[in-house]
């Protein structure tokens, strides 16, 4: 058990040292053993369901008392269906192909040296996250399957839920024979421990932040170890002039309202000036109890629409609110996305294949979609099992970060006695 009287630096150093030893074991763990451990962890999550629900109830009550928004409370809430979903996701990761040891490419030099690039784990991954307790299981599962050790630091809003999920996961993986230190949970919500993780050079190989702008900004400002950033999701849906009206209404309402608190929710609606049924489109959102904040032209479509302010185009609402404006063609839509988007997920709705391909080619986002809801921006929906986050940067991994994104590679060189002249 960790001694909470230690300084943050001492505690993270001890956890990091244990994680480093566990990572060495995990890198050599057979694929079958890792899969068996995750199946056992999923079973343990289901067995611990009453305990997890009770822990989550405590977090929900505290969150409501502290004034958490409805969207944040939705992210936090766990019930039997969601816990079963978390366990299912862990099992899905167990069934995915193990990336460790995969040969990326091979070549032979004129001197006979045979070169190959082989996937290997990153090592020790620190995950700093807020609100969503499913991240505890997702991160643990992805880290283990890809041969890494993980150090988890969840937010204070979900502390009881996270501890209960972590305990269940560890119980399962240790029963299967993997080291408990491969999945560690930082035992305190002291913010100083975040700083200690960010400075843990040589102990933690990469930091993955999942949370709001303030968290990600702090991580990027203070980190002395590499960061794989999951930024905000200012996602756009552009309804082109050639969009099918029925399809457009269904996609837009789903993209905004299915779950408003996820990063793949559409936050801005762009309507082509040539689109035939804009009034019905915004009415569908309003009728679904979504607040629409529109530019001057959009406000004329329905008296229920509120005027948009400048800041609305740069806001991730995570709530039943959407900004809407008219644009004059695909060029203006792409210009708006380039200025106001977060390079997360952006979609076009159109029956014009040529325009769609133009949008997909020119849209500079991690995920670009055609005739689909932005709510599909999810590792599970992409067939990746769970995800550790959606990277909006350009380095290492982009889009949903799953098993492959948690590996790097090494060069393996096989010779027959060659010496360099």
Structure explained in plain terms:
- This protein has 421 residues and is an alpha/beta fold.
- Helix content is 41%, strand content 19%.
- It has 2 domains: 8-230 and 401-414, Aldehyde Dehydrogenase, Chain A, domain 1 (3-Layer(aba) Sandwich); 235-376, Aldehyde Dehydrogenase, Chain A, domain 2, CATH 3.40.309.10.
- It has helices spanning 8-28, 31-47, 49-65, 70-76, 80-94, 134-145, 159-176, 192-198, 213-222, 245-257, 278-287, 296-299, 330-340, 353-362; strands at residues 103-108, 114-121, 124-129, 149-153, 183-185, 206-210, 235-239, 266-272, 291-294, 306-307, 321-327, 345-349, 367-370, 390-391, 399-400, 407-414.
- It is globular.
- The relative contact order is 0.14.
Characterize this entry briefly:
The protein is of the alpha/beta class.
Topology diagram in text:
Layout lengths: L7 H21 L2 H17 L1 H17 L4 H7 L3 H15 L8 E6 L5 E8 L2 E6 L4 H12 L3 E5 L5 H18 L6 E3 L6 H7 L7 E5 L2 H10 L12 E5 L5 H13 L8 E7 L5 H10 L3 E4 L1 H4 L6 E2 L13 E7 L2 H11 L4 E5 L3 H10 L4 E4 L19 E2 L7 E2 L6 E8 L7
Query: CATH class of the largest domain, please?
Result: Alpha Beta
The 3D shape can be described as: globular
| DSSP E strands, number | 16
CATH A-level architecture of the largest domain: 3-Layer(aba) Sandwich
The total tally of domains equals: 2
Largest sheet: 7 strands, parallel
Ends distance: 56 Å
Helix content: 40-55%
The amount of beta strand, in percent, is: 15-25%
What would the average pLDDT be, to the nearest integer? 94
**Rg result:** 23 Å
Low-confidence stretches: none
Structural classification: alpha/beta
């Amino acid at each position: 058990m960790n001694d909470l009287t230690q300084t943050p630096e001492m505690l993270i150093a001890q956890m990091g040292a244990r994680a480093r030893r566990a990572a060495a074991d995990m890198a050599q763990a057979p694929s079958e053993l890792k899969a068996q451990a995750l199946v056992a962890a999923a079973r343990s999550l289901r067995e611990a369901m009453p305990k997890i629900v009770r822990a989550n109830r405590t977090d929900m009550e505290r969150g409501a008392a502290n004034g958490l928004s409805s969207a944040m409370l939705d992210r936090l809430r766990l019930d039997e269906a969601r816990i079963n979903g978390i366990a299912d996701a862990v099992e899905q990761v167990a069934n995915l192909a193990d990336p460790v040891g995969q040969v990326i490419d091979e070549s032979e030099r004129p001197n006979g040296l045979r070169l190959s690039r082989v996937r290997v784990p990153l090592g020790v991954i620190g995950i700093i996250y807020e609100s969503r307790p499913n991240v505890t299981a997702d991160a643990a599962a992805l880290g283990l399957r890809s041969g890494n050790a993980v150090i988890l630091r969840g937010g204070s809003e979900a502390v009881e839920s996270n501890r209960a999920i972590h305990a269940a996961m560890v119980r399962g993986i240790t029963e299967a024979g993997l080291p408990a230190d491969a999945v560690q949970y930082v035992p305190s919500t002291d913010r100083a421990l975040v700083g200690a993780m960010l400075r843990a050079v040589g102990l933690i190989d990469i930091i993955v932040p999942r949370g709001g702008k303030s968290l990600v900004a702090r991580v990027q400002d203070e980190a002395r170890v590499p960061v794989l950033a999951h930024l905000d999701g200012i996602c756009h849906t552009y309804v082109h002039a050639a969009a099918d009206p029925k399809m457009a209404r269904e996609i837009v309402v789903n993209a905004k309202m299915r779950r408003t608190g996820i990063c793949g929710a559409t936050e801005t609606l762009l309507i082509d000036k040539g689109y035939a049924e804009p009034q019905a489109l915004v009415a569908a959102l309003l009728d679904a109890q979504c607040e629409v904040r529109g530019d001057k032209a959009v406000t004329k479509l329905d008296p229920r629409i509120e005027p948009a302010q400048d800041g609305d185009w740069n806001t991730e609402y995570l709530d039943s609110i959407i900004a809407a404006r008219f644009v004059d063609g695909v060029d203006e839509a792409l210009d708006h996305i380039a200025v106001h988007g977060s390079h997360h997920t952006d979609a076009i709705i159109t029956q014009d294949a040529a325009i769609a391909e133009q949008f997909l080619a020119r849209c500079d986002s991690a995920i670009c979609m055609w005739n689909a809801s932005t709510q599909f921006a999810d590792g599970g929906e992409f067939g990746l099992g769970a995800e550790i986050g959606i990277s909006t940067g350009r380095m290492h991994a982009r889009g949903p970060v799953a098993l492959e994104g948690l590996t790097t590679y090494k060069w393996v060189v096989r010779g027959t006695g060659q010496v360099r002249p």
